[in-house]
Each structure stands twice: as C-alpha cells, then as structure tokens.
C-alpha cells in the first residue's frame, strides 16, 4: 500500500487524517480505491472524464505524474503519493 | 529640443507636475512613486456577450512589482515607519502566497528594510525566483497546508523571536484595506466618471474588496460591491481564499459586501485564456476568476434589459504562473 499525503482542503473527507494508506498498482487504481475509502474525494481531484484536474498536482516519490505516465504511473508498496493544490490568497 | 538639462526636482514632490493627471509620470524619485494610478481597460470584445453593459478592468499588474499587492505593501510599510514600529535591526516578516512577498521585497529594498517571507512550499517557481532576486529570506511552510499553514508558521516564528521580527500581518492590518480606500476606490470612481454600477473582485486577504467597496459605497450607496470566492476548498484560483474552510482574515467584514459569487476554478482558468486570446491581456487565474464573475453579473443585467458599468481587477500577469517545462522537472517547488 502507498502512503497518500492529504492536503488540508481534502481532510474533511479523511476525517482529518493527513496521511492515509491506499492500495493500487498505479495512480488510476489508487484514486479509485481512495474514493471507495473516502467517498466524494475523487471528484475534487479528477474531472468528469476521470483526468486529474489542471490545478491539482499529484506526485509519486516527489515526481509529478504529468512528467511520468499520468494515471498509469506505477505505484510501489510504501511509495509516498502527494496531492497538492494551488495556493489560497494573500 | 533645446538640449537643456532636465529640471531639478524637489524631493518627494513627484515629477508629475507637468504630466496630465492620471498619466504615468515621466520621472520619479523612487520606484514606489509608480505604485497606484493604474489604467482602466475596457473589455470591449468580451463585453459583446452582454449588450448594454460595459465591462472594465483595473490593470493592477501595471504596478511596478507586477501586482495589486504593491499598494498594500507600500501602505503597510509606510504606516509602520510613521509609527516607528520597525526598530533598527528588525526584519519585517509576513506570510504570503507570493505577490505580497514580491511587493514587500521591492518596497523593503527601497527603504532598506530586510524582509523575511513565509510561503507555502508549493508557490509557483517564478514567485520564488522573483522574490529571491530582491535579496529576501524565504522560509517555506508545508505545501499541504496552503496559505493558512504559512500564517501559522509566521505566528510561531514571531512568538519565538519577538525582537527579531516586525510582523505586520497583512490579513489583520488596517493599512491593507486603507491602501485601496485611499487609492483604488478613488481612482475607479474618477476613471468611470462616477458611472460605476458594480464593483466585483476576488477575496484573498480581502484588502482590495474591503477598502475599495467602502470608498465606493461612500460615493454612492447604489454601487453594488460583490466579493468572489472559490466554490470549493480544493481549488486552483491561486490568490483567492475559500473562507468557509480557511482562517478568516481579521480585516474581512461581510457587511461591507452586497453579495458573494462562488467561482469554479474551470471558469476562472477558461476566462484567463480568453482574456489573452481575445483582449490581449495575459493575466493570472485570479484575474480570470474576477472577469468571469464580472461577466456573470453583466449577462444577468443584459438579460433583464438593464445597463451597467462593471469594474473588476486584473491582479497580476500570467507569467507569474508558468508551469515548469518537462526538462525542468527537477525544479525545486
């Protein structure tokens, strides 16, 4: 299982948890399983077509999945997956 | 063409005595003299969607630091200096999502005030590069906790080192909205010849919308002042705050506003693209959100057969947000 780091705006779905363990061989599977565990969270990360929203960045072990294989990016056991939004004001 | 040398200028008188009012002066004593008095640009092509309604945008990216935040930073530092708050040897510290940091860096340089900025680690690379160029110290807060994480870290650092830092706290500092009360609000009223019917803009610290709206309401109670917030806590309108899920700035007072628009990230981003393609205005996503909000109001008015003069804010340029190129994937966030 991968360790997924959850940003504050999504912690309402994870009952406040900053880090959750989720299984999945790639990011697509991982997001599906994340949704099963925490209903509603996927729509905040992905658009209607299932693609990661333009303003959300997903990193596997510090690498942006846009520069890897997007949703097909492989995830290994104990990998760190970060979900990072844009910055709020000021 | 008589070859005579430039006229000497008295200090701080500004050089604009020979320039028509509202024009950028041809000579100034300091870069900070160029803050404010930004042009108002008509969105003549986007406006075609809403016959009878005028759409205008205040080009705040024309400020010398590149964003609307120059106004607040200048006023905050000037007021603090006037009160003697910044003691010798102290650094000014504040939390920022970026543009205020650039503004503090620029203004601080002109006054010789050392600056420390607390920014979320995931601010765009250009913001980090620009602020670093001015010689400021940057302390990064968690990328998972956004600007509220930066606010909490700034508080902590100031508590630990009260003698080291002067902490103006832009989210609580009355000088922030006052910059717009005395600047932006007056300028918009004059630039529209008092014809403005609606002022609409996004909320970050809320300084712009608070100060400008207060002034406009003083000119005429019939001007409608509307704030824009992202429609969800998880959003991509960098610079805007979703208040229901955030630390609400002390300077924010919802009673000042007549209404709030909840903006989707997609609509804001799409409008930012349209502004570049149709109006030649390459601006950031928050500006896109602002114009999308202004257009939504304009369409409503137009549908009802009403006229209107709607003004919004273009906060900064789009080049503050360039995504890293593929070969730069190892860039530091």
List keywords for this structure.
heterodimer, A: 90 residues, alpha+beta, Ubiquitin-like (UB roll), five-stranded mixed sheet, 2 helices, 18% helix, 21% strand, B: 333 residues, alpha/beta, Rossmann fold, 2 domains, six-stranded mixed sheet, four-stranded parallel sheet, 9 helices, globular, disordered N terminus
Unreliably modeled segments of chain A: none
Uncertain stretches of 5 or more adjacent residues of chain B: 1-17, 325-333
Oligomer status: heterodimer
Q: In sequence order, what are the helices and strands of chain A, one letter per element? A: EEHHEEE
Q: Domains counted in the coordinates of chain A: how many?
A: 1
- Mean pLDDT over the residues of chain A: 92
Spatial strand sequence of the major β-sheet of chain A: 2-1-5-3-4
Gap between N and C termini of chain A: 37 Å
Which percent band covers the strand fraction of chain A? Answer: 15-25%
Large-scale geometry of chain A: globular
Helix share bin of chain B: 25-40%
Radius of gyration of chain B: 20 Å
Helix tally of chain B equals: 9
Largest binding interface between chains:
A-B, 26 and 43 residues
What is the level 1 CATH name of chain A? Alpha Beta
The secondary-structure class of chain A comes to alpha+beta
- Strand-residue proportion of chain B: 15-25%
Write down the CATH topology of the largest domain in chain B. Rossmann fold
Summarize the main sheet of chain B: 6 strands, mixed
**Highest-level CATH class of the largest domain in chain B:** Alpha Beta
Tell me what you see in this structure:
The complex is a heterodimer of chains A (90) and B (333). With 90 residues, chain A is an alpha+beta fold. Chain A is 18% helix and 21% strand. Chain A has one domain (2-84): Ubiquitin-like (UB roll). The model of chain A has no long low-confidence stretch (mean pLDDT 92). Chain B has 333 residues and is α/β, with parallel strands linked by helices. Chain B folds into two domains: 16-65 and 176-321, Rossmann fold; 69-174, Rossmann fold (3-Layer(aba) Sandwich). In chain B, the strands form two sheets. A six-stranded mixed beta sheet of chain B has the order 1-2-10-7-8-9. A four-stranded parallel beta sheet of chain B has the order 5-4-3-6, with helices on both faces. In chain B, strand 4 (115-120), helix 3 (125-133) and strand 5 form a beta-alpha-beta unit. In chain B, helix 1 packs across helix 2, helix 5 crosses helix 7 (207-219) and helix 8 (265-279) crosses helix 9 (285-303). The model of chain B is unreliable at 1-17 and 325-333 (pLDDT under 50). At the A-B interface, strand 4 of A face helix 4 and helix 8 of B.
């Amino acid at each position: 299982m991968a360790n997924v780091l959850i940003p504050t705006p999504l912690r309402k779905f994870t009952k406040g948890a900053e880090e959750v363990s989720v299984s999945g061989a790639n990011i697509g599977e991982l997001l599906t399983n994340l949704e099963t565990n925490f209903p509603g969270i996927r729509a905040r990360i992905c658009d209607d077509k299932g693609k990661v929203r333009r303003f959300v960045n997903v990193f596997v072990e510090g690498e942006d999945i846009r520069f890897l294989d997007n949703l097909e990016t492989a995830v290994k056991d104990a990998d760190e997956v970060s979900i990072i939004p844009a910055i709020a004001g000021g | 063409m008589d070859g005579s040398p430039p006229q000497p200028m008295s200090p701080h008188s500004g050089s604009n005595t020979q320039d028509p009012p509202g024009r950028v002066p041809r000579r100034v004593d300091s870069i900070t003299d160029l803050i404010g008095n930004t042009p108002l640009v008509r969105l003549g092509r986007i406006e075609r969607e809403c016959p009878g309604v005028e759409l205008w945008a205040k080009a705040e990216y024309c400020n010398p630091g590149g964003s609307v935040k120059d106004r607040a930073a200048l006023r905050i530092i000037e007021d603090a200096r006037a009160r003697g708050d910044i003691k010798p040897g102290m650094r000014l510290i504040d939390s920022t999502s970026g543009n205020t940091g650039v503004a503090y860096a620029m203004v601080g340089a002109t006054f010789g005030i050392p600056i420390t900025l607390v920014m979320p680690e995931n601010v765009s690379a250009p913001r980090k590069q620009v602020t670093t160029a001015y010689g400021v110290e940057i302390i990064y807060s968690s990328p998972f906790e956004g600007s509220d994480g930066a606010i909490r870290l700034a508080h902590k650092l100031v508590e630990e080192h009260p003698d080291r830092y002067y902490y103006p706290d832009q989210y609580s500092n009355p000088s922030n909205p006052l910059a717009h009360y005395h600047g932006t609000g007056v300028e918009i009223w004059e630039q529209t010849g008092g014809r403005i019917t609606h002022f609409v803009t996004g909320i970050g610290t809320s300084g712009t919308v608070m100060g400008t709206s207060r002034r406009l309401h003083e000119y005429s109670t019939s001007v409608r002042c509307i704030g824009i917030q992202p429609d969800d806590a998880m959003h991509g309108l960098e610079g805007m705050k979703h208040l229901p899920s955030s630390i609400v700035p002390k300077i924010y007072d919802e009673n000042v506003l007549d209404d709030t628009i909840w903006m989707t990230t997609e609509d804001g981003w799409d409008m930012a693209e349209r502004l570049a393609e149709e109006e030649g205005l390459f601006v950031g996503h928050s500006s896109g959100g602002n114009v999308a909000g202004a257009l939504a109001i304009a369409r409503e008015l137009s549908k009802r057969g009403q006229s209107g003069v709607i003004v919004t804010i273009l906060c900064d340029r789009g080049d503050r947000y360039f995504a890293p190129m593929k070969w730069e994937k190892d860039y530091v966030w």
